[in-house]
Amino acid sequence: MANIFLSPMQPLVPTSCLYLRMDIFMETPVDQTEWILITKCLDGNPKAQQELYHRYARAMYNTCLRMCQHTADAEDALQESFVYVFRHLDSFRKESTLGAWIKRIVINHCINRLRSRRMQWDELDEPTMADVPDDHPEPEPDQWKVQAVKSAIDRLSEGYRTVLHLYLMEGYDHGEIASILQISEATSKSQYSRARQKVRELLANPDTHVH
After folding, report:
1. What CATH class has 19-116?
2. Burial profile 73-94: b = 16 or more Cβ within 10 angstroms, e = fewer
3. Which of 10, 14, 170, 190 qualifies as a cystine partner to 127, CB 3.0-4.6 A?
4. Which segments of the chain have a pLDDT < 70?
5. SS3 per residue for 75-134
6. CB 75, CB 67: distance < 8 Å
7. CATH of 129-204, one of 3.40.50.620, 1.10.10.10, 3.30.479.30, 3.40.50.2300
8. How far apart are CA 10 and CA 65, in angstroms?
9. pLDDT for the residue 195
10. Are the CB atoms for 205 and 191 separated by under 8 Å?
């Protein structure tokens, strides 16, 4: 496979709206044009590989940055993910969109990096009824601006933050999160509920100590 990652391209930087749930290509069905592109990639065509990379790299970088927080880790996770994508592209089927398939690979690589930093799950246990999030949660106060919410989320422990990102920003349900993180669905719901509560506490009192 050609080394497409060293090709000139615009810097991969997060957009101003980090917390939009959907990226442009994530829900685009695999049409004939994209299947032709995939076929050319499988044949080792470097231009096709570069096109596929450029089509998804920016959105996937934003996912890596949300998950890993640190730029260097995000860049490494992105590169590792696309190496995996091109090595395993022959295993892609039409069961999901190409964007969703790539995103799952990216998420898995980010999770592996977080685990290598000894992400802790010892806060987790089975939820009480109060821990399970509402189907229709109340709206947040208008004064809680995007940057304040982002800062509060960034202060959460990695376990809380990871579940919150996967559910709110990446659009996974609790069953999918449980599968990705190898935890129970009840634990995912409990972690999400507690993370959301901690964010509210931090927004109400930014000097709150996080533990």
Report:
1. mainly alpha
2. bbbebbebbbeebbeebeebee
3. 190
4. 1-31, 117-144, 208-211
5. HHHHHHHHHHHHHCHHHCCCCCCHHHHHHHHHHHHHHHHHHHCCCCCCCCCCCCHHHCCC
6. no
7. 1.10.10.10
8. 17
9. 93
10. no
